Amino acid sequence: MKTFTALLLLAAQASAYTLHEWGTFTTVSGSDGVLLTGLEREESPLPHFAHSHLGLANGNVSMENGFGKGMNRPVAGVTVKMETPVIYFHSDKAFDATVKVGFAGGTISQWYPQRSGGEVLPVPPPTTEELTYEQRQERMRIDFSKGWKGSIEWKARVLSPAESRAAILFKPGETQHWTQPRVPEANVVQVGKEKEGFLFYRGIGNFDPGLKLTVGGDDTLKLSNQTGSAIPFLFVYEKQLGSYTRWKTLKSGLKADETGEVQLEDFTVRHSNPEQPDAAELFGHGEFNEEVYRDMVAGLTATGLLESEAKAMVETWWTSYFGANGLRVFWVVPEAKTAAILPLEVSPAPDKQVRVIVGRSEVLRPAKEQEYLAMSRSTEEQKKLTWQHVTATDRFGMAYQKRVAALAGAEAPKATAAATR
Question: Any signal peptide, and if so, which residues (predicted)?
Fold first, then answer.
């Protein structure tokens, strides 16, 4: 009996820790609320030491030339880019942990430190027939619209606070997006010789996070919570380069099955400094909006993250979140929805865990859609080149193409009907 009690005590001591996590589900929808595909592009390259599935090292920085390697394995049907989930451990003691994360609807394509298990991407069977490049690519293609179930597993050592303070985390080739998530309160995690202040993973997939956004002809933004649970915090933000930024904080959130509205007059507006160079503003080097920063950090902290963790998230994605043009809604995915999409199993189990996945929902206003549609049809050389540049280089360029194609397709029957009248 004494032995059994002692074992229970040891188990309790080993699991006396807290687990925190934050990350982003990025989506793009048309003004009609339909999620668009084509979100496999990345805007923040990973360092060369990050691991990935063969062919899915999208955006990794090459040590040789500093350029992104690009995604070599073709994919289709990507409606969600899962960005930078990081898992922190807060413990007074060192312990060994097994961490398993599933991904209902997508693949966990990149990670660090090295995993000990998880999904294996299929490899087409060998063939003796001569195949063209296009045929080989098609055989390798993963279409996420047909369903997918990803996973990853780590067998890691969580270092003690003293060991964590003594650990050297610096790695040649680090980027700002990589170092920003480190927080001083978290324990260092070690797998083999690889050490970091968190467990990191990324992915792509096809699923609906659950917040439907539509914009009518009067420019009113409608938010419909279809997650099945209450959304605790929402932050609506819009930027027009060289003109204005405007935002609205919904501190009370949105109840399950509730629909809310944000009209233009509801926004707090800050007009751009006319003397601020556009390029600097575009890349997030313009005037710092402290009110936006504080509102976002407060909203994330209220959901359970440490202030340092909330700041790390906002600072990691500041340029992308708040320096880029467009209308977007940031919202905290309900815990039950997060667990359904990203089931997490940790052994030993934490005393407490906080998982804050932020939906970054980009939505096109009708006027912007019509601008893109007109640009795609223009015979003017400058407009044609601009549209080609948008679709080829913009992070969401492929999604914009899908929306323009849908709008053009919807107009075709109307034009035919009008011609026959």
Answer: 1-16
